[in-house]
Design goal:
- The complex is a heterotrimer of chains A (271), B (348) and C (373).
- By secondary structure, chain A is of the alpha/beta class.
- Helix content of chain A is 33%, strand content 23%.
- Chain A is built from 10 helices and 10 strands.
- In chain A, the strands form 2 sheets. Chain A has a 6-stranded mixed sheet, sandwiched between helices. A 4-stranded antiparallel sheet of chain A has the order 2-1-4-5, covered by helices on one side.
- Chain A is globular and about 60 Å long.
- In chain C, strand 10, helix 9 and strand 11 form a beta-alpha-beta unit.
- Chains in contact: A-B, A-C, B-C.
- Chains B and C meet through helix 3, helix 4, helix 9, helix 14 and helix 15 of B and helix 1, strand 2, helix 3 and helix 4 of C.
Chain lengths: 271, 348, 373
């Protein structure tokens, strides 16, 4: 596992090759159609927002991209290569990190343990190879470093159980975990939904930090001001399909909402 | 990350420290705080008080042989409580621990006594049976997605029936069983005090399991799966694999329990200990492990088993009827869980 | 820091430490124990009152409650410090073993026990080595010399008595027999002694006389005037009324013509009666059983049971207690009944329809000496 991308920033190289690409994804739950042929591209160093009404297929789309669901049809390409994610672990290994709405943190574990959950590091030598001892000290040290590099100052003590943290702090833990390991893509599902104004701002700042470090971000949100504040492009889901992709420059918030609700169609695409 | 104030603020914003800042608490609150921080305190206090009180009631309680007796009496329950703790940490419950123990012990004893199988191989085959029984529980929980309570309620009956069918309902007496198998009941002396090898085996198992739970990724995953299954899954932990391994590991631990049980009774009986499952749950609960999973400590289960053993023995020495012992254990469970609930409220 | 941190560090250490301390305390605080010296006599006798433990199978059975009551009365009379213990359910050897060990620790002089099965033998032998007199009540262990002596009903004789009675009452008719036994999941001497005794009393040829259900299922019985017999089957009742009813229902499904029912004890027999009553066959089938509890004797009086063999648990407890006191005071050990490997506390046939040549007492007489309420 490398933390190189948060320790050493790299310049966002804007090639036209998408980092992550989805083609004609279809997912049905019984007779309910979750996704009805959705395509999507994510380019290096950009923040792509996905918006849409409840039931428009935002969550299903994200789950398919991150291995939490397997699409019935369609394909997903990572760096131009077709990939098949059967479970979250596959997406992790491919370099796609997700912060779910539920945060997927273990409340009883401390911050450092949560950062390394599912990829604990073992000690060097016989203690690690034979006795399978975890390198708790090393993990804690690197957790502290990683948090500092992301500018997360509210989490000084990485030995505090997550259940004792505020909502914003928990969110920071989840985002930090994604950033620390997401070598290619970070997906944030409604990161500001449960947060107050100040904490929301902190999370948005975190999103910008990720972009500065060249990590492309997919942001799913209901909150139009937040989306328009940080997104480079906005993918609008409607009734299981992509209703269009716009930019904060090409359309206003009101127009975006109109497209989302079907009151208006996208006539010209944003850059 | 917010550039205005937080950056400058000292780490005192941590809840732990904040609590100490606002130390305008009553002694009761402070006691609760301490108990929350050190979950071993409450079972620890209980056992120390119990030992003192029972010693005052009857000085014979402190006799070397009596204390050695208590350790022998909790050896089997204590061992099975390790298996039970593992399962309960994953938010499951294993009602079949006793049944698996009896099944494996009958296999060990009968193969070695009636079928002439060499003792080490008989032990090994008993272990295989217990592993298979654990694996069956694991498969039913992970593949059929049935609640562990239902699965083990079912396998409890299945294993009891298999035991009775296999053993023809007959017990095997100690004289017919090779010494290696009954040897867990043999004693050795340290400073005039008798210890059985079974007690030592139990303690070793606790040490090993405490290490595994605390220091390995697997141990951490066991907690996480019980704490929040979905979070575990989304974090890339293979939940089913962890659950499966927990039930199989429980089988292995139970097999050791079978061995200790044969030594303790110096016999293998198809009827002994099928309801020990409740005793193990009692030990785990008194030891402070949450039945909802994800929280608890393996040493607490040992303390829990010892508390029950000390109460039972102490009340018996005080000359109280067995019914009062049962009553006392019942009260202990309720008190332990209430205290636990009360302690947990500390943060809210 | 490093060793255990992913939850609250000191907490775990505390747990481990207190667990270790407890174990340590168990050894360190230990004083030397005089009862370990194999002097051949328990240590409790010196000075204080004589300690005796009564360990029965369960306290849910009035039979054992009667035993406990008699023991309490006797203990008060003899100035004995009595401790009662019992398994949580039938077959709970674990609790009995613990009770035996506790009794040794307590320094009791003797133990009265109704052993649940052979599993308790090694604990008993530990007690005897520690110098306690161990007396089995009601149920002899296997082997019988595992205890110092057994005070018990001769179950086989009790079975033979009701078998003979049934044979005489059949008066040469064909017997279709339902056997309501005790266990299906373990082998107990009381189970086969009564079952096989009953069949022997009927005059049916036994195979292994210590095994239920291995005799020929049809043939001739020789008791009374003799005749054909057919055994409908053996079903376990666990000595329980509800299970007894289920057992009888099963037997009736196998063979609706059952006209003779043997039941291991009176609760099971009453359950069998309920099954017969539900099937409308309570008049055509004769029930014989063993126990002699006050309820059972009343049921003999009411004609529900044709006969029962009455046993005397109170007497067992009294005699047992006396034996321990006597040993403590005079060193004299009790002796077994001639021809048996235990002390027979006797049994009497209770019936209101006596048959010639078979000694019996009436239900009115039985009610005067019955146990329970």
């Amino acid at each position: 596992m490398t933390t190189a991308n948060i320790l050493g920033p790299e310049s966002p190289a804007q090639t036209r090759q998408p980092v992550l690409q989805a083609r004609n994804l279809v997912k049905t739950y019984g007779r309910v159609v979750g996704l009805d042929g959705v395509s999507l591209e994510l380019y290096p160093g950009e923040v792509l927002a996905i918006i849409g009404d409840n039931g428009a297929g935002k969550s299903t789309l994200v789950k398919c991209l991150t291995g939490a669901e397997v699409p019935d049809q369609g394909e997903i390409l990572l760096d131009g290569q077709t990939v098949r994610f059967r479970r979250p672990q596959d997406a992790h290994e491919a370099g796609i990190e997700t912060v779910y709405q539920s945060l997927a943190v273990s409340p009883a574990l401390d911050v450092a343990s949560n950062l390394y959950l599912g990829r604990e590091r073992r000690k060097a030598g016989i203690l690690g190879s034979v006795f399978r001892m975890m390198d708790k000290k090393g993990m804690r040290k690197e957790a502290e470093e990683g948090l500092r590099n992301l500018g997360i100052s509210t989490l000084q003590d990485v030995t505090v159980p997550v259940e004792n943290l505020s909502g914003g702090q928990r969110q920071a833990v989840a985002v930090a975990r994604a950033a620390a390991f997401g070598s290619k893509v970070v997906v944030l599902d409604e990161p500001t939904a449960a947060l107050g104004v100040r904490e929301s701002n902190q999370v948005l700042q975190l999103v910008r930090t990720l972009r500065e470090r060249g990590i492309p971000v997919i942001l799913i949100s209901h909150n139009m001001p937040h989306v328009f504040e940080v997104a480079d492009r906005i993918h609008i889901q409607r009734l299981g399909k992509c209703a269009g992709t716009i930019t904060p420059q090409s359309h206003t918030m009101t127009e975006a909402v109109a497209i989302m609700t079907g009151a208006r169609k996208v006539d010209e695409k944003g850059a | 990350m917010s550039h205005q104030t937080t950056e400058a603020s000292p780490p005192a914003a941590q809840p732990d420290l904040a609590v100490e800042f606002l130390d305008r608490r009553t002694p009761v609150d402070r006691a609760r705080q301490a108990l929350h921080k050190y979950p071993a305190l409450s079972p620890g206090i209980v056992i120390i008080l119990a030992i003192i009180v029972f010693g005052l009631l009857n000085p014979r309680f402190f006799y070397a042989n009596n204390l050695s007796l208590v350790s022998q009496q909790v050896a089997v329950v204590g061992t099975l409580a390790i298996a039970q703790t593992l399962v309960i940490l994953t938010a499951g419950i294993d009602l079949s621990v006793g049944a698996i123990m009896v099944l494996a012990s009958m296999v060990m004893a009968q193969l070695a006594s009636h079928n002439g199988v060499p003792a080490p191989i008989a032990l090994l085959l008993g272990l295989v049976v217990a592993l298979a029984a654990g694996a069956l529980n694991g498969i039913l929980v992970t593949r059929l997605k049935l609640p562990p309570f239902i699965v083990t309620l079912g396998t409890l009956s299945i294993f009891i029936a298999l035991t009775l069918l296999y053993s023809n309902s007959a017990s095997v007496t100690g004289q017919d069983i090779p010494g290696l198998i009954t040897g867990t009941g043999n004693t050795f002396k340290i400073g005039g005090v008798n210890f059985t090898y079974g007690v030592v085996m139990m303690l070793l198992l606790y040490i090993v399991m405490a290490f595994i739970l605390n220091s390995t990724a697997w141990g951490r995953h066991v907690y996480t799966v019980g704490d929040d299954k979905e979070a575990a899954r989304l974090s890339g932990i293979r939940v089913n694999r962890v659950l499966m391994s927990v039930y199989v590991a429980a089988g292995a631990i139970i097999a050791v329990g079978s061995w200790i049980q044969i030594g303790r009774a110096d016999a293998a009986s198809p009827n002994a200990g099928t309801d020990i499952n409740l005793d193990t749950i009692t030990a785990v609960v008194i030891g402070g492990t949450s039945l909802f999973g994800g929280r608890g400590n393996i040493w607490g289960s040992l303390l829990g088993a010892l508390i029950v053993g000390v109460f039972r023995n102490g009340l018996a020495l005080a000359g109280l009827d067995v019914l009062y012992q049962t009553l006392a254990v019942g009260v202990l469970i309720i008190v332990a869980v209430s205290v636990d609930q009360w302690i947990r409220k500390v943060r809210k | 820091m490093l060793s255990s941190t992913f939850r609250i560090t000191p907490a775990k250490r505390m747990l481990a430490v207190s667990a270790a301390l407890t174990i340590g305390a168990l050894s360190l605080t230990a004083c030397s124990d005089p009862s370990t010296a194999g002097s051949g006599s328990g240590s409790g006798a010196a000075g204080g009152p004589i300690g005796v433990s009564l360990i029965v199978k369960t306290t849910t059975n009035p039979y054992f409650v009667a035993m406990e009551d008699a023991a309490k009365t006797q203990a008060a009379k003899d100035g004995v410090k009595l401790t009662l213990a019992a398994g949580k359910k039938d077959g709970d050897a674990t609790t009995q073993i613990q009770a035996i060990e506790d009794s040794i620790s307590r320094g009791d002089k003797g133990i009265l026990i109704t052993p649940t099965d052979d599993t308790v033998n090694s604990a008993i032998s530990k007690a005897r080595k520690a110098g306690l007199l161990v007396i089995a009540l009601d149920t002899a262990p296997n082997p019988a010399d595992a205890v110092d002596i057994t005070f018990a009903t001769d179950n086989r004789a009790a079975g033979v008595a009701i078998g003979k009675y049934a044979a005489a009452k059949l008066d040469g008719k064909k017997a279709v027999i339902g056997m309501v036994d005790l266990f299906s999941n373990q082998v107990a001497s009381v189970d086969y002694d009564r079952d096989q005794g009953f069949l022997a009393g009927l005059g049916i040829e036994l195979n292994d006389k210590n095994k239920n259900g291995d005799e020929a299922q049809t043939g001739k019985y020789t008791g009374g005037k003799g005749g054909e017999y057919e055994i409908a089957g053996n079903q376990a009742s666990n000595g329980d009324q509800a299970d007894g009813r289920t057992a009888m229902e099963t037997l009736l499904s196998k063979n609706p013509n059952i006209n003779l029912v043997y039941a291991i004890n009176e609760p099971a027999a009453y359950g069998a009666y309920q099954a017969l009553q539900a099937a409308g066959k309570e008049k055509s089938a004769m029930i014989v059983t063993i126990d002699g509890g006050c309820t059972g004797v009343k049921e003999v009086n009411q004609g529900i049971f044709a006969a029962t063999s009455q046993q005397y648990p109170s007497k067992m407890a009294q005699l047992g207690m006396d034996a321990i006191v006597k040993l403590a005071k005079t060193g004299e050990k009790p002796a077994v009944t001639a021809g048996l490997d235990f002390f027979n506390t006797g049994s009497k046939l209770v019936t209101d329809n006596a048959v010639a040549g078979l000694p019996s007492i009436t239900s009115a007489e039985g009610a005067k000496v019955c146990w329970g309420k």
